[in-house]
Amino acid sequence: MYGLPEGVDLSFLQEVVLGQVPIEAAPALVAFIGHAVVNVEYETNGTLELTFSNGQLIRILDSSEHYESYQIHNSGSTIVV
Questions:
Q1: Which of 23, 40, 43, 56 minimizes the number of CB atoms within 10 Å of its CB?
Q2: What is the pTM of this model?
Q3: What is the distance of C-alpha 31 from the center of its chain?
Q4: pLDDT tens digits for 31-68?
Q5: Exposed, middle or buried: residue 52 (CB in 10 Å: 0-12, 13-18, 19+)?
Q6: Host domain of residue 33
Q7: CB 21, CB 29: distance < 8 Å
Q8: 25 vs 22, 37, 51, CA distance in Å?
Q9: In a domain? residue 1
Q10: DSSP letters of 14-50?
Q11: Per-residue confidence at 25, pLDDT binned at 50, 70, 90?
């Protein structure tokens, strides 16, 4: 919907360890639990890629022109995509 602003600082995602996931997402994300983010890449169209210490990658898309696709929270600030 909004994409990601050019030059946005997502470095706070580096070294974050995935500790728990919602039960409905658990089957898809169980391989990432306990692993740290080692690389963060994004495109201004809203695509966000997180590479984890186990070598696996999560790609999150801004899949809707009309609705919010996802949020990123950090220390009281929120990025809505």
A1: 23
A2: 0.85
A3: 15
A4: 999 999 999 999 999 999 999 999 999 999 998 888 99
A5: buried
A6: 11-80
A7: yes
A8: 5, 18, 18
A9: no
A10: TTPBP----TTTHHHHGGGTT-BEEEEEE-TTS-EEE
A11: confident
CA 10/CA 28 separation, integer angstroms? 23
Computed from CA positions of residues 14, 64, 81, 27, in that sequence, does the dihedral angle turn out positive or negative? negative
Q: What whole-number distance in Å separates Cα of residue 48 and Cα of residue 59?
A: 6
> 42 lies in a domain?
yes
* Structural domains of the chain, count: 1
Structure tokens at 47: 């695509």
**Confidence category of residue 26, pLDDT binned at 50, 70, 90:** confident
Does residue 36 sit within a domain? Answer: yes
pLDDT of residue 1: 56
